[in-house]
TrEMBL record:
Residues covered by region (Disordered): 41-114, 132-165
Source organism (scientific name): Culex quinquefasciatus (Southern house mosquito)
InterPro entries in the record: IML2/TPR_39, TPR-like_helical_dom_sf
Gene label: 6039488
Name the UniProt record assigns to this protein: Tetratricopeptide repeat protein 39C
GO biological process: cilium assembly
Superkingdom field: Eukaryota
Length: 557
């Protein structure tokens, strides 16, 4: 009787709700009005009837009514709040009499005061939250950082112990950063010139020497990426550089660097299938084809991963093709066509040219139909290999009546073209190169060429490998002349003209005559490179030749 616990509980529940949820303006107005009224006790008579409060005298100078009495002083009644069930005069007099008699406030007054204090604290906390939410960009402003005391007892901010950084951690971190930066630099440097312009516009520039230096630093660090750095360097020296011919046909530095890396890792990774694979690549670049096949076979048997087995089988097939062993190469490529998920049309084409060069013509027409179906079902029609096979598919006989395509020399020229396009002529033995020169050096009327000028292009490349440079220059000039019909250059098989211009330019730059002739050769080589870069587009492996031309012109400039 004197204190309504139900209303007090309702007020506490309402204030908790305001502390959690974002209040509206009506909610705040309601709470303020309630905070002035609901903490007064409700008095009833002994019969349970509520005393009706008498209207207090109005103050003409204000817009509200006042009630005075006891120790409460004056209380202004809100015009928006109805004080139903409260006798303020009686309550104030009772409170005065009790406080006068006992000298202490009643429990109801203490509870009301506590509720008012709690509500005030809730409002202050909520206003602080609102100020934090309404800060800059809707984020709470961060407190100022604590000052760092470096001369204390070794305890940093937040109670954490301030200890020096271990130098081994720094070295390990630098090894990891060098690995990522080195791979990034090498990858950027291998992009075609059209993309290099965009990359340089964004602020990146591929530095091949910096990439190799970073990987060299990472491989000698204690970071877990050190073996990956070694594999990355082996990949660059044995696959990327020969494939793109970044340094021409001179791969002595790459071969020595790769061999040194393998020798240093021999104790730790002697039985690793990946390192055995790269050992085979080094032996192949040295023209030690038998040793390369042995390394690939050991890696094939020791590996438990299907992908590495197929990779080794791919290299074994190419080694057989470099040896011009068409029968064994045909079996390997046929197995790859059946098992591999990568470009089945590519392995089908390798199989058919090996069959034709081997003198086995029974299934040539069937192979053309199968390659056409594989190309139509392929999901990589825009890749360079798929485009290359699609253009070569027209070289395969459509019917048995095309007698000119049933000549072993016709198919051997296609095999030589594959060796040239994949930069595998450098790995051939001298006897193999002599056989290629003998086939391609025949008179044009006796040479059954799949494409005009192909024989002279292969002849020049083989003579370069035999270091017969003057004869190679004449062969490339004959190729460019054969590709021109009455002053108009042929538009079919444009890759032959592009590669002939590039190879001739590289030979002219290699000449070591007197200064005047050397200057003339340099200008002619630069003119050939610029002509090939500007006039030949959308041919077989155009990105590869463009990367080479861009690299050479960058050195010349």
């Amino acid at each position: 009787m004197g204190f309504d616990l139900r209303r007090t509980g309702f007020l506490i529940q309402r204030s908790i709700h305001l502390a959690i949820a974002r209040p509206s303006t009506e909610d705040l107005r309601w709470e303020i009005s309630r905070s002035r009224t609901l903490f007064f006790a409700q008095s009833t008579d002994q019969t349970g009837t509520v005393d009706k409060p008498e209207p207090p005298p109005e103050d003409p100078s204000s817009g509200s009514t006042t009630t005075t009495g006891g120790s409460c002083g004056s209380v202004k009644r809100s015009l928006t709040t109805q004080f139903e069930g409260f006798d303020l005069n009686q309550q104030s007099s009772q409170s005065s009499s009790r406080r006068d008699s006992n000298g202490e406030p009643t429990p109801a007054e203490m509870a009301a005061k506590t509720c008012r204090d709690n509500l005030r604290l809730e409002f202050e906390g909520f206003s602080t939250k609102l100020r934090g939410r309404n800060g800059l960009n809707g984020f709470r402003p961060r407190p100022p950082p604590e000052p760092v005391n470096h001369e204390g007892d070794g305890v940093g901010p937040g109670g954490c112990e301030d200890r020096p950084i271990d130098p081994d951690d720094v070295r390990r971190l630098m090894g990891a950063v060098s690995f990522g930066y080195g791979v990034f630099q090498l990858s950027i440097s291998l992009l075609p010139p059209s993309l290099l312009k965009l990359i340089s516009f964004l602020g990146f520039e591929g530095d091949r020497a910096m990439g190799v230096a970073c990987l060299m630093h990472s491989r000698i660090s204690s970071d877990m990426r050190a073996p990956l750095s070694t594999l990355g360097l082996l990949w660059y020296y044995t696959i990327v550089t020969p494939f793109f011919a970044l340094d021409g046909s001179n791969l002595h530095h790459e071969i020595c660097s790769a061999q040194e890396l393998i020798d240093e890792s021999n104790d730790q990774f002697a039985k690793s299938s990946l390192f055995l694979f790269f050992r085979g690549r080094v032996e192949r670049l040295k023209s030690n084809i038998k040793e390369a096949i042995q390394a690939y076979e050991v890696a094939y048997r020791s590996s438990a991963q299907r992908e590495i087995k197929l990779l080794c089988l791919h290299e074994i097939g190419w080694c057989r093709l470099i040896q011009l062993d068409y029968g064994k190469a045909m079996k390997n490529f046929k197995e790859l066509r059946r098992c591999s998920l990568f470009s089945k049309s590519f392995y089908a084409y390798l199989t058919v040219i090996c069959q034709g060069a081997h003198g086995y013509f029974d299934e040539l027409v069937r192979w053309r139909t199968e390659i056409t179906e594989l190309l139509s079902r392929s999901t990589q029609k825009e890749s360079q290999i798929e485009k290359y096979i699609a253009r070569r598919c027209s070289k395969i006989p459509r019917a048995e009546t095309e007698q000119e395509k049933f000549d072993p020399l016709y198919w051997r020229l296609l095999v030589y073209e594959m060796l040239f396009m994949w930069n595998a002529l450098n790995s051939c033995h001298e006897a193999t190169l002599q056989a290629i020169v003998q086939d391609c050096g025949k008179p044009p009327e006796e040479l059954n060429e799949p494409s005009i000028g192909l024989g002279r292009l292969i002849l020049g490349a083989a003579l370069v490998c035999l270091k017969r440079y003057e004869e190679a220059i004449r062969a490339f000039r004959d190729c460019i002349e054969a590709r021109t019909d009455e002053g108009v250059e042929l538009q079919q098989d444009v890759h032959i003209s592009a590669f002939a211009h590039y190879e001739l330019a590289m030979l002219l730059l290699r000449k070591e005559d007197d200064d005047e002739d050397e200057g003339e050769a340099r200008e002619e080589a630069k003119r050939l490179l610029v002509y090939a870069q500007l006039n030949y587009k959308s041919f077989d492996f155009d990105n590869r030749i463009n990367v080479r031309i861009h690299s050479v012109l960058r050195k010349l400039n």
